[in-house]
Amino acid sequence: MITTLREWFFANRSLVLFAYGQVFFILGLAIVLQSRQRSRLRLARNLPWLAAFGILHGLNEWGDLFIPIQAQFVSAPIIELLEFFQLILLAVSFACLLQFGVELLKPLPTPARGQRFLPIALLVLWLIVPFGGGLILTSDIQVWQLNANAWARYLLCLPGGFLSGYGLLKQSGGQIRSLGLSAIERLLKIAAGSLLAYGLLGGLLVPAQPFFPANFINTEIFTQLFIVPPAIFRSLSGLILAISIIGALEVFDVEMERLILRMEEDQMIALERERMARDLHDGALQQVYAAGLLAQSLQKKASPETAEGLQRLVLTINQSIEQLRTFLLQGEKEIENIELIPALEAILDDTRRVLPIATRWETPQPPILTPQQISHLTAFTREALSNAIRHAQTDSIEIGLCYVDEHLRLTIRDFGLGLAEDREAGFGLRNMRDRARLLGAELHFESAPGKGTTVILDLPMETTP
């Protein structure tokens, strides 16, 4: 039975190598397609290193499958050159894994800050001694390849797996836990465990060599003891790593949803505050003002004793009117000294954490705007950005501002799906139209399916909202 199983693995070695490489290649590709570079999470900034490891390591493993096939068609020197390149690919992939672990541990304490250069230093050491020196000193190419392979695993893969696993555990218990995402925290812990396992399986199990520990712990002895070759266990650890990391990438969608929710909440608060201000101005303030006029009228007809009391009443009413006016103007005073572009940049800073935004400020001498106009324009921009992020599925956004012929034109363009046919029913578009109406501006939408949407707000400056 054992002999039959070994023969089966040997006969299907190509299938094992293909699956092994595919697991890691898919891991890297999934991270490239789904990660968010502009996320505030440290994990997002470091995931490209793990993606590079997955893609490069997958290509390396596929080399064991395709190079022997090419040996039937090309000369021996070409095959040796391909094998040299494959060895370098292996070492570079492990260096990326080690760099991923080092980056996850930041910020490092002052005495350990030099450790961020550890991966490149070990890679250079490997290139100089086992790779370059071994090639010069060893006449047997196969012996040199096995020796360089072993040292790449000892110097780069073993510490890379351990540091990456520890770093993921640290991240899962830090920023991720603070978000309250227990499911994603568990996935990252599983990923950390698979990285630790891969560090042992990939970094400690090397081709047999005449030095310790390669003469005692190696792939040949492992296969004799467990029947199954190490590549199977490495593939399983890689598969668990890929599944858990791909699942954990949901954290970036959650982060984006929370940013959109916060933008919408700010919009709702601003709208409610404006409604309350209008109600107070049109209702309570006018009634209090009328009461003050009535008290002044009665004061002229009242006796001296009553007139004195009415005078105190008039003063109290005037104080109430001033307090109400102060409350109504409070929001305006917050932005009365802020120009439009700095106000817009404050909104764009939050959105840039999710999507890249290009700006074109073509206003060398921007017009003078009232606080109410700035408030409406910033709220309009926030609503347009929120709609683009939530519905357009765009990769980037462009925003432009120009002032030509006494017209201020604000343009917001995305490169997503375009507006749906039932766009009239959307609350976001309705809010944008309300803002345009309050500004006395014209609002236009230019959209085509699959070609994105351009929102144009044209504000004649002679119009006062």
Lay out the secondary structure:
Blueprint: H1 2-11, H2 13-34, H3 42-70, H4 76-104, H5 118-137, H6 141-172, H7 175-178, H8 182-203, H9 219-226, H10 230-248, H11 250-301, H12 304-335, H13 340-351, E1 357-362, H14 371-392, E2 397-404, E3 407-414, H15 427-439, E4 442-447, E5 453-460
Parallel strand pairs: 1-2
Antiparallel strand pairs: 2-3, 3-5, 4-5
Fold and architecture overview:
- There is one protein chain.
- It contains 15 helices and five strands.
- The chain has a five-stranded mixed β-sheet.
- The chain has three domains: 2-248, Rhopdopsin 7-helix transmembrane proteins (Up-down Bundle), CATH 1.20.1070; 256-335; 338-465, Heat Shock Protein 90, CATH 3.30.565.10.
- Helix content is 70%, strand content 8%.
- The relative contact order is 0.07.
- It has helices spanning 2-11, 13-34, 42-70, 76-104, 118-137, 141-172, 175-178, 182-203, 219-226, 230-248, 250-301, 304-335, 340-351, 371-392, 427-439, and strands spanning 357-362, 397-404, 407-414, 442-447, 453-460.
- Helix 11 (250-301) runs antiparallel to helix 12 (304-335).
- Strand 2 and strand 3 (407-414) form a beta hairpin.
- It has 465 residues and is an alpha+beta fold.
- The model has no long low-confidence stretch (mean pLDDT 81).
| Secondary structure tally: strands | 5
- Please give the domain count: 3
Helical run tally: 15
The biggest beta sheet is recorded as: 5 strands, mixed
Gyration radius from CA atoms, angstroms: 34 Å
User: Separation of termini?
Assistant: 87 Å
Q: Give the helix level as a range of percent.
A: over 70%
What's the CATH topology label of the largest domain?
A: Rhopdopsin 7-helix transmembrane proteins
CATH level-two architecture of the largest domain: Up-down Bundle
**Order of strands, widest sheet:** 1-2-3-5-4
